[in-house]
Amino acid sequence: MNEPKSPLQYFNDGAIARIVFNRPEALNAIDTTMASAFHDACLCISADPMIRVVVLSGAGRAFMAGGDIAQFRDDPQSIPTTLIDPMHEGLMVLTSLKVPVVASLQGAVAGAGLSIALACDLAIAAEGTKFNFAYSNLATSCDLGASWSLPRLVGLRRALEIALLPEAINTVSALQIGLINQIVPADNLVDATDALAQRLASGPTVAYGMLKRLMRESLGNSLGTQLNAERASFSACATTSDFKEAVVAFLEKRPPTFKGR
Question: What is the pTM of this model?
Fold first, then answer.
């Protein structure tokens, strides 16, 4: 007897952790089982000191089309506890990681899929990818941090337009307004994502973590607080092996070899 297919795949590829949303027949819409698996995968990644970058992707022709509409119809009262709560807890873990998190996007990136993509540090998208806030089309507000991430990426007025008047956004527009970082040909998405992940995985991991924290906390800090945080972070980075290697490599006029510590 064949075992049921997991709605989410999580595995390590060297220093790269990969989370693959794996319900292609439903455009990877989130159901209760996927939400639980996502939560568990994020906890596993956070506990693994060997991970230096995380990549999120979707199986099939879409990254993610949102939540499972069948569950919305059949048991709407269960959504906050069985779907939203584990996804939120997982995202809190994911966004607090001290390593870069990359979204690899294709097809539909809508609703919860867009929220997840917005939460990542970097996003690379295949040509033809369509982005849609979608929540208000279902007469609901958003979840998975969209109301926090979207205004910070595109500004409040544009975020309200995207939320209140949801329309499909193509890759060129998504790049222009800051939803994504890079567009690649559809048949090159996997290779381009791997190249980006490998570049990040070979970088100065501690410094990346410090930079992530500084950037994410900056909007809530005064200039004085931020300057103090920058000083403390630089001091911490200056004690690392990677910092020493970078300085020596610069003086020796060679590329540095970073160990992530």
Answer: 0.93
